[in-house]
Amino acid sequence: MDSITTARLTLRHPKPNDAPAITRAINDWEVVRWLSRAPYPYQQTDAAEFINRSEVAWAERNASHFVINLKSEIVGGIGLERHDKSLFDLGYWIARQHWNKGIATEVVFAIIDFAHEQLAASGITASCHEENQRSENVLLKANFSRVGSGLRFSTALGKKVPIIRLLRDPAHTDRSISLSH
Fold first, then answer.
1. Is 105 domain-assigned?
2. In Å, how far are 10, 59, 69, 129, 175 from 31, measured between CA atoms?
3. What is the extent of the structural domain holding 84?
4. Burial class (CB in 10 A: 0-12, 13-18, 19+), 123
5. What's the number of domains the chain is made of?
6. What is the DSSP letter of 101?
7. Domain of 118: which CATH number?
């Protein structure tokens, strides 16, 4: 599946010519500070590397990364990375000028449907910085449950930060699943 369509948005695989638009959308300290792997400042070469890694991961069926389009503008990114055969880790970001418009909630529900329908996911994990109340609220709205906490290295901050670990697993009640990264 090359794209996912919601009421307002299109999620599609990133293409090489998306690098400038991705860079413009994500290169904001208030966005990057909440992410684990994104550097700051975020350069066009970072976007190009992300696109290349996304293409390889898609071909190897290890991950599904999408850019989020509102009309014709890239307003964020969302993806799933495979932990094992049917367990996936969810990550996303939204450009700051598009916060508080329901975009994150809309795309999280869309990617959950994609994970179950196209990838036969039995469970989806996610994590967010302990201080990132917005992201935690989105995940709780999408029926994720808190399952623990931990530390994760933040590239932009250059240190480990406290995180909340969450799980959306409607098919199984076993919460002893390993959520280490």
1. yes
2. 21, 28, 17, 12, 30
3. 3-123
4. buried
5. 1
6. S
7. 3.40.630.30
With respect to residue 181, please indicate whether it lies within any of the assigned structural domains.
no
Q: Is the pTM of this model over 0.70?
A: yes
Identify the sign of the CA torsion 107, 108, 113, 118.
positive
Domain annotation covers residue 175: no
Rounded CA separation 90/65 (Å)? 10
Q: Where are the beta strands (DSSP E) in the chain?
A: 3-5, 9-12, 63-70, 73-82, 87-94, 123-129, 145-154, 159-168
Is 103 in contact with 75 (CB distance < 8 Å)?
Answer: yes
- Give the mean pLDDT of the chain: 92
Q: Using one digit for the tens of pLDDT, what is the confidence trace for 6-34?
A: 999 999 999 999 999 999 999 999 999 99
pLDDT tens digits for 155-181? Answer: 999 999 999 999 996 654 333 333 333
Task: Report the distance separating Cα 17 and Cα 21, nearest Å.
Answer: 8
Section 119-145 average pLDDT: 96
| 142 located within any domain | no
* Band of residue 79 on the pLDDT scale cut at 50, 70, 90: very high
